[in-house]
Every structure is written in C-alpha cells, then in structure tokens.
Amino acid sequence: MATAQEYWERKLSTKLVPASEAEYRRHLGRFLEWSNLTPQELYDKTVEAMASTDKRDEDDIQILATEYLAHMEEKGYAPSTQNQFLKSLVFFLNESNKTGFDASDLWVDKSYRGSKKISHAQLLEIYRYCQRDQKLRNRALVLFLKDSGLRVSDVVKLNVGDYRETEKFRYEGSVYAWFNPQRTKKTKSDAYPCIGEESITGVSDYLDERGDPADNEPLFLNEEGRRMSRGNASVQFSRLRKTLENPRKISAHSCRKFHTTALLSAGMEKDYIHCLQGKTRSVYCTPYDDNTLREDYAKSYHKLRIFPYSDTDKEVQSLQQQVEALRRERDELKQIDEQRALEMQQEVKTMLDDLRAEFGQAIKKIQENPQ
C-alpha cells in the first residue's frame, strides 16, 4: 500500500504545474522541519484527529497550523505566502486519501501586507541607534537596504568586488554607484541596483574599517568574520528596531517597501522600480535603457535621503499642514458664500414678487377708476 507521501507525490506531478509543485514541496518541507514530523506522522496524526469524537483532537491540528502561521508572520512572510503554505498543507492532507482537514478558518486576511513600510524618521532613528559594536557595518547595511531596494537575501550574497566594480556617475553634483546586473535569489531575474551618496559613504567607511578586503570577500560580514546570512541580517535589524516607539511589523524587508513608495512618490515609473529591485516584469512593461534608468533614479533620490529629514522635512510638513488648514478654511468660506448668495437671491425674488403684486393691484385700481 502506498504511503501518504508516495500518494501525494503522484498527485503533485499530475495536478500541478512544475512551478506550483516546487512551491508546495518547499512549503510542506519547511513545515515538517519546523514541527519535527515526517509526512506519514503528520498524515496519521490528522487522520486520528479527524476520526476522533473529541473535538479537541481535531483542534490540535488547527493549533499546530496556527502556531506555524504565527512563526511565519514573525519571520516577516506576507499573507499571500502564509496562505500558500495553507494550500500546500490542505493539498497534502486531502489528496492523500481525503482526511477532511479544513483550513478555511485559518485563512490569512490579505488586507494585512506583512512588514510595514518604514518611514524616513524611523530609518534615521535606527541609523543613530546603531551600537558601538559593528556600528559602521550596521549603518552601512541599513543605508544599503533603503537605497538599493534589494531583498535581504540578495544583499548578503554580494561581494566586495561587486561594489568596487560599480560604475560611478554624477548627477547635479551628487555621486551614484550603478551595479552590474545581479541575479536575484527568489525570482531568478536580473536586478539593476543603484545606490546614492548616503549608501556610498556608509559602505566606504565600513570597508575602510576592514582595511583592504579582497574582492572575493563578502560585502557584509557577521560577528565571526564570515558571510552574513539572511537570518543574521534580519536579527540585527530586529535588535535595531527596538529603539522605535512602535516597532511591530517593522523588519529589514520594510526598507524594500520604503524604496518602492519613495521612488513612486517622486514620480518614477513602477516598471523602472521593478528593474532596480529585480522583480519579475511583464513582457508588456515599459521598456528602458541604462541611461534613462540611472537618470530617473538620480532625479528621484531626494525621496530616499534620510539625513535632511530632521531639519527640512519637518519644516515642509509644517508648511503643508498650514496650507491644508488654509484650503479647508477657503472651502468653508466658499460654502458660506454660496449659501449667502442663495439667500440673497431668495430675498431679491421675494422683493420682486411683492413689487409685482403691488404693481398689479395699482393697475387694477386705475382700471376700475379711470378718472
């Protein structure tokens, strides 16, 4: 008799396209590793729970899945990714001889979008909070994440040589660094990252502190002098965010969201941002060339800056608030004026009606008494 996993394997290859098959395998594998269960143990446990007359047994499977969803949320996975895990779990349990497991109550609300976007003020606060130990590295990492918009997994795989081989260019007196295309780990598409002055200064200071590292050395090192991992970078960011007043759902991935919204607010085309970040792009997306992409990034970089925020941005915000208050006052006055105009029109109409009535009476009297 085929085991649950063997039966599932056959269903995977016949019901799913290769990309979905690989994703289902990956999600279930992570869950089994986390729960320390084999596929057969998970299947048997579910069958026993669903067959039990005690509702609490069935809840055990729900609780196990809920705990794993909480683990995924803590790791910064988006709701869509969490729901994809649920799909893979339901597929395994129900395609392996129909256990009847129902995950509809566990579905994650897609209105919550995982990590929150970090603000200019929060980035500046984290930058200033960087501790004395590994201060330059952590500052360089934060600046690089927000300037490049790359995923953490793509940043930590960069080498020193990748940074040294960048093409430096100037735009309106500022210096920018244009990287060679970088193959992204998640989507296997090319990213064309660019960084500005703040990141260039941060990374250069960090490399100076390391002396003269070889080109094949990792750009970012962990505390043991080896390549920093994605998990290590996320842990470092989690420590740094503790200085924030409301650090919940702020993660290293928040810098990527900051990068997207900042460039969009500067008027940069979404397809161009996807090029910079290495997101999968449609064949119908806006075509680009290197010069246009670099120039658009440089034009928009003022929105990515964090250092002027504490001075100029607060003043701009104050002025914007004053402008909004004046606009509201203008609209209120306009409404009052419109109402007053209607009242005056009504008053004039009433006066005219009264005059017409008096005039009509006078004419009538004259007609009745012609002499």
How large a portion of the residues is in β-strands, by DSSP E?
under 5%
The separation of the N and C termini measures 126 Å
Residue-averaged pLDDT: 79
| Strand order across the largest sheet | 1-2-5
Biggest sheet features: 3 strands, antiparallel
Query: What characteristic shape results from the CA principal axes?
Result: extended
Task: Kindly provide the radius of gyration, computed on alpha-carbon positions and rounded to a whole number of angstroms.
Answer: 32 Å
* Percent of residues in helices: 55-70%
- How many individual domains? 2
CATH topology of the largest domain: hpI Integrase, Chain A
CATH architecture term of the largest domain? Orthogonal Bundle
Q: Structural class of the secondary elements?
A: mainly alpha
Q: What's the helix count? A: 15
Any idea of the CATH class of the largest domain?
Mainly Alpha
The count of strands amounts to 5
Q: Uncertain segments of ≥5 residues (pLDDT<50)?
A: 103-113, 309-313
- Oligomeric assembly: single chain
SSE pattern? HHHHHHHHHEEEEEHHHHHH
